[in-house]
Write a structure and sequence with these properties.
Oligomer: single chain
Number of strands: 2
Distance between the termini: 38 Å
Structural class: mainly alpha
CATH architecture of the domain at 85-234 and 275-300: Orthogonal Bundle
Number of helices: 17
CATH class of the domain at 85-234 and 275-300: Mainly Alpha
Strand content: under 5%
Helix content: over 70%
Shape: globular
Amino acid sequence: MKAILGGGRRPGIISLLFYFILLGGIGFLFLYPVLYMAVQSIMAPADITDPGIAWIPTGIYWGNYSKAFAALDFSKAFLTSLYLSLIPAILTTVSSGFIGYGLARFRFPGKGKWLALLVASFFIPSQVTMIPRFMMFSQYQIINTPWAQFLPAMFGQGIKGALFVLIFMQFFSSYPKALDEAAAIDGAGVLGVFFRIAVPMARPAILISVLFSFVWYWNETTQSALFFGTQIKTLPMKLGSFASSYNTIYGSSAGAANAANALNEAISMAGTFLSVLPLLVLYFVLQRQFVESIERSGITGE
């Protein structure tokens, strides 16, 4: 009976079965869209129209990816997204690190008010400040240029920049000030203490800031469409106009001559999978560092 119900800290069979069912259900909810997208993207046109085929296609058809690759202009769009995501992510991390260190280690007049203003900026939706920011950038003549994305990141006001400032602030407040004082006794200045003591200890927070900021900049389309217009197209923006781009290259579906190249669900799923593939690869490559950084940073309150 104890083996079934459990006792003390040792879970029983019923408890383990409940946990497995619960975690399996949650995992299925997350994995189902990705699996469905991957399976649908390799189906031939005949498999798409066959009502008897739901999950297992008769064969792997890579033609969907070649068409989606051309419709997305994948190489150019990927490099544009990488450029407009990685640089702001690095700038946001650097600026947030400096601001968080200053708030954690120094006392100055109005510190509490500045901190309250920072927290308030985090709760204000970006849609509220988007139009005033657009008008300001128009006066500076940086609309349709990458600087519309770079400048806010340089001053800690990138996408959810306040969150990263708070993470760094909490992290820098967690280690003893005696380490800073010891480095100062050895002759290190303020910047020396920051780069020699604070930065090496903040590696988990740095990795979290870079990864989260990179993903958020990569997926951002509303702000990018407003600031870049039609001059600069990221991969998610290309996906938003996928149907029109595809029809421009391969023609509309009308007529028997274009029937073989008509846009279908498989081609759309291939385009969607290509747009999220870089993020999936990034996660699988940095999975262990990603999980460890979350555990060691201030996000969990540890």
